[in-house]
Amino acid sequence: MNCRKEIRLSCEELEELNRKAKERGLSDSQYLRMLITNRPRDYPELLEALQNLTNEINHIGININQIVKNNNSGLYHESDKKRLYVYMKQIKEAVMQVVSHLDIAGN
């Protein structure tokens, strides 16, 4: 059973609704329903960004594990400390990129 609900929007709000729905290739009603249900599958670009982040962290984690292994074997060098810093910076940048996608998706 379908129900009907009328809402009041300002001209600016209506323009924004139309623009955002059009950007996603949806009708106004479909876009509003998507916002209400807020399912992750409704945001494929965000899912892709999260998958990329996961892959990036996995690769960096492998490198960090190698450095830890060197440390446990007594083969730790000052250059390993620098590499750890670079890896942590890469993780931070990758996370910030996903956060920017969240900001875009939320707007």
Brief summary of the model shown:
With 107 residues, this protein is mainly alpha-helical. The protein contains 4 helices and no strands. The chain has 2 domains: 31 residues; 64 residues.
Model description:
This protein has 107 residues and is mostly helical. The chain folds into two domains: 8-38; 43-106. Helix content is 76%, strand content 0%. The chain is built from four helices and no strands. The protein has helices at residues 11-23, 28-37, 44-72, 78-106. Helix 3 (44-72) runs antiparallel to helix 4. It is elongated, with a radius of gyration of 22 Å. The mean pLDDT is 83.
Main attributes?
107 residues, 2 domains, 4 helices, 76% helix, 0% strand
Counted by DSSP, the helix tally is 4
Secondary structure: number of strands = 0
Task: Tell me the major beta sheet.
Answer: none
What's the average pLDDT? 83
Overall spatial form? elongated
Share in β-strands: under 5%
Rg computed from alpha carbons, rounded to a whole number of angstroms: 22 Å
Organism: Enterocloster aldenensis
Pfam family, one: NikA-like
InterPro entries: NikA-like (IPR053842)
Protein name: MobC family plasmid mobilization relaxosome protein
